[in-house]
């Protein structure tokens, strides 16, 4: 009763506060977005975090975009494109596209951008990826560019859509200056930067010169402001008083509670991110490592009650997965070996492997500690004692590189990419420190799938890889995550399939 009374009081307070503050930002035609982590650089070529990707959707355009409904790649600044052959791509530019300073986009700007991005000396965040497949880029006409690839690469349009916003020729004086970009960005997107206080806020204004007829359409809201508010309670208070209209990445319990008040509605949507456990099947940490044994890895899969974790901890649109990928992705089959929750089978497998009393191992964790604790509790019931090592993602990466990790609780968002290559190539490529399987057969299938333009062959390769990964239990696939949003009630918003909110689509309700 006390808990209910507290929620009722919160709802009553929210109603009172909302009645005095409602529509204040609507009158100013300003959408305020609360973010937890700071934005220190407004240039997407030199940033990687989710809040910076959401910002770049507003301030930047590339040659292509991801359609939020189909998750397919569509021409954005490009008018059309044609694969001359498997390693030659010609792109024709849309007419009337202008940078925020009013200058027109030309083929020279595209050539400059890709040469700069792929140059190792420029230090761009995706330069190594682009350099891997880009052999050359040249101007064919004022509105036409030719890309030569080092090998057939089916994700070239993905990289162009997600990783390379276009820049005006001569934008960067030096790589060092670019990394600390704190002035107005000269982008091509539907909004331009009009104010930037690094680490605190970014102010945007709808760009009057944005081209017509593109897939992003014509944005409705005039001003958008990103405000860094590290404390979630402060974000909630701002939302309830009308100071903030949009929150994302909200913990489930908070989203449910605030969504029950008059101040906001709770919107849950799918996300490309998946959570999982990776075990040292190769034995990098020692040949006597328990995870070298198949029966132990299978026991791990049977011991964890994934359904309970999804229902009680993750919630929202989350779902249990069997394969090491997200079902929304091309190539991500789910018709693989299934491990239901069966602690008795887990104990029998442990005994068969020579561990009738279980064993201990170091469990590396860098996020979602409550879920990790639930996993450890399930494992303890079958005799597997996990010693939690809570670290930063950077510390985990360092430990993986030095081959110190027995098993870790991981998470991967794939950059919102609806293609299995985005997770498979990072976790099963031979040189990846995330690859703890050491399985050359899986490695080869993943590489083959990434280097052919034939969709049927790609599907066959991924089917082979994911079936083998499940059968040999290299992972414990857990679940897809849920994207939780809190949205002001006078704001129209529909959750995207890939968990990337396109704020240029938002509108005030009539």
Structure in a nutshell:
The chain has 510 residues and is of the alpha+beta class.
Give a description of the structure:
The protein has 510 residues and is of the alpha+beta class. The protein has a domain at 271-481: Dipeptide-binding Protein, domain 3 (Roll), CATH 3.10.105.10. 33% of the residues lie in helices and 23% in strands. The chain contains 17 helices and 19 strands. Strands 1, 8, 9, 10, 11, 12, 13, 14, 15, 16 and 17 form an eleven-stranded mixed β-sheet that branches. The protein has a four-stranded antiparallel β-sheet with strand order 4-5-7-6. α16 runs antiparallel to α17. Residues 1-23 have low confidence and may be disordered.
Give the topology, please.
Blueprint: H1 2-21, H2 24-28, E1 30-35, H3 50-59, E2 64-66, E3 73-75, E4 78-85, E5 88-93, H4 107-118, H5 127-133, E6 134-141, E7 144-149, H6 156-162, H7 175-179, E8 191-197, E9 201-206, E10 223-228, H8 232-240, E11 246-248, H9 252-259, E12 264-279, H10 294-303, H11 306-314, E13 319-320, H12 343-352, E14 359-365, H13 369-380, E15 384-390, H14 393-401, E16 407-412, H15 421-427, H16 440-450, H17 455-471, E17 475-488, E18 491-492, E19 507-508
Parallel strand pairs: 1-10, 1-11, 14-15, 14-16
Antiparallel strand pairs: 2-3, 4-5, 5-7, 6-7, 8-9, 9-10, 11-17, 12-16, 12-17, 13-17, 18-19
Helix pairs in contact: 4-5, 10-12, 11-13, 16-17
